Amino acid sequence: MGSFGKTLCIRMTKINAGLFVLLTIFLFFFRYTHAKNGEEKNVSKVKRSFWLIRNRCNIWTGLRARRCLYKEKYRKDTYKACGWWWRKRCKTGTTYFWKYKWRTCHKRCPVNGGWTGWSRWGTWGGCHGSSCVGQQKRLRTRSCTHPRQRNGGRHCRGSSFEWMSRSCRPVHSKVNGSWGSWGQWRAHGACSNTCGKGRRLFIRQRTCTRPAPKCGGRRCPGPTTQNKYKSCFLKKCVVDGGWGAWQTWGDYKTCSKTCGTGTKVRHRVRYCDNPSPSNGGAKCQGKDRESDDSVCNVHGCPRDGKWSAWGQWGHFRHCSETCGHGVRYRYRYRECNDPEPENGGKKCPGSLKDEEFKRCFLAKCPKMRIKLISKTDKIMSDLNSTKTETSPVITGDSVNLQNQTSI
């Protein structure tokens, strides 16, 4: 290889070395920039967290976070290329300098104490007391550690323990009761009656005090008092009479009438023997005999019939003769119903029918040799001949006949 080849090789070596140096510088610069950006990010996070917890006292550590300025010492080394083809780095010198930075620092702060929760209740203790009712106690506690008092803070207020008590009965205090002796008989109240025989109450008592029941002991069995009655007499009683019960009714007497509506009577009595008057007492007031009337009717009484009032007159009939003098008549009627005859009574006397006659004249009859008896004259002659059967009443030109026989 000639000189040209040697020269080219040397130049290529120098170019490679230069490229290597440039690549190294680029990598160093990139790493330095990236590290600086990451440090700035961390610083910004610290700043934010600092401002969030600023002036807050940590109750568990007793420290308050703050922002403090401090200086940090740095060292800077200088190098240069050396060796064959500047392939080595040789240290030329070292310099020192200071940088000021912010960081979080802590300062003590006072923390007030806080109570923990109450513990579970302990077991009941023994029953203490000299009377029938004693007391048992049990305990629970708490501590001033939530949080603990630090740096001059206030201590927990209140008690760190608490007692619970309940009543109990000591075993040795139970005593059963027993009766004492009976007392004397004593009168209780006055005699039951103010006169005559009566009763008076006497009472005696005893007490359950030998000994008395104590602390739930059994009470004395049986009553505390006994009663008895004694007879007493003050004076004879004035007894007023009182009526006894009514006796049974007697039989009815004979009816007061033999026919029609009558009455029959029965009686009952009572006696003044409930009680009988004694020692100047008053007699019974009122009647001792009582009557009871009842309607009786053996059979209806005979009743005679009576006429009712006459009815209206009817119209007059035609004249009995066609010429000469004649008679016109009319009728009226009545009934035997005011009242009707009953139970064999008599019927109404007289006739049901009443007649009234009136003379009439239509025209003159023609003259004849033989004198004929008119029908009117014949009727009039009959009336005169039978006076016992009819009685004529003539007023003006009318004749009223009342027949006494029934039609």
Overview of the molecule:
The protein is built from 2 helices and 13 strands. It is of the alpha+beta class and 407 residues long. Among the domains are: 134-173, no CATH class; 186-233, TSP-1 type 1 repeat (Single Sheet); 266-296, no CATH class; 325-401, no CATH class. The strands form 5 sheets. It has a 4-stranded antiparallel β-sheet with strand order 10-11-13-12, with helices on one face. Strands 5-6-7 form a 3-stranded antiparallel β-sheet, with no helix packed on it. A two-stranded antiparallel ribbon has the order 1-2.
Low-pLDDT stretches are: 38-53, 383-407
Strand order of the largest sheet: 10-11-13-12
Number of strands: 13
Strand content range: 25-35%
Mean pLDDT: 78
Order of helices and strands: HEEEEEEEEEEEHEE
Global Rg: 80 Å
The number of helices is 2
**What would the principal axes of the Cα set say about the shape?**
elongated
Instruction: Describe the main β-sheet briefly.
Output: 4 strands, antiparallel
Q: Helix- and strand-based class?
A: alpha+beta
Q: Percent helix among the residues?
A: 10-25%
> What separation lies between the terminal Cα atoms?
210 Å
InterPro entries: Compl_asym_regulator, TSP1_rpt, TSP1_rpt_sf
Keywords: Disulfide bond, Repeat
Region (Disordered): 385-407
Protein name: Hemicentin-1
